[in-house]
Design goal:
This protein is an all-alpha fold. It has helices spanning 60-71, 81-88, 92-100, 103-107, 109-112, 129-143, 146-155, 160-169, 173-181. Helix 3 (92-100) crosses helix 6 (129-143).
């Protein structure tokens, strides 16, 4: 990966900006438990009264998915606009949907993303599962009803056990289809 200083053009007008997202870590150590040093820190993932579409908080799934998003670039989000848009999404809502997304879809975007972005190198269109998943999650987030909470509680802990427990009693075919992707081996 080239340094930012090495990427300036001959005219000196353009450069590349790399972003390095970091996991959530609280600054304060208010209760003496040194939670601010824990890699497991979360910020209220089970809050039922908050509008998750506009005011989400970090969950283990979100933290893991940011790591997956940046893994291909060794901790950075690509400075290439088309790759950055594919990685994080074009809007806040797409980014939020990506935070919920199964790793299979995040890791294999070229296979599963139908949309081809302007400036992106030539590739075949994918299966469309990325867009279908985003649509599914955004519908849940907009309603924020019992169905949303069932899904959120199954995937937020980033635990196969939580997903399996949900699948045991779940009859919702659409949700079952997406939850099975969380159990796919890497």
């Amino acid at each position: 990966m080239r340094k930012v200083e090495d990427s300036w053009t001959a005219r000196g007008r353009a450069g590349k900006i790399y972003s390095y997202p970091m996991r959530f870590a609280p600054i304060d150590n208010t209760n003496g438990e040194k939670e601010n040093r824990s890699r497991e820190a979360q910020n209220g993932s089970g809050e039922r009264n908050r509008p998750w579409l506009t005011e989400p908080v970090w969950t283990k799934r979100f933290t893991r998915n940011v790591a997956v998003m940046t893994g291909a670039a060794h901790g950075a989000i690509s400075p290439t606009a088309s790759l950055a848009r594919r990685t994080i999404g074009q809007t806040f809502e797409e980014f939020l949907a990506n935070l919920y997304m199964p790793e299979e879809l995040l890791r294999n975007r070229s296979k599963h993303e139908k949309r081809v972005y302007p400036g992106e190198r030539k590739r075949r269109r994918g299966t469309g599962k990325v867009e279908a998943f985003r649509s599914f999650v955004l519908r849940l987030l907009r309603r924020q009803d019992a169905r949303f909470w069932k899904f959120h509680d199954a995937v937020s802990p980033n635990s196969a056990l939580a997903v399996r427990a949900c699948l045991k009693t779940l009859r919702d075919r659409e949700m079952r289809k997406w939850l099975r992707l969380y159990l796919k081996k890497r």
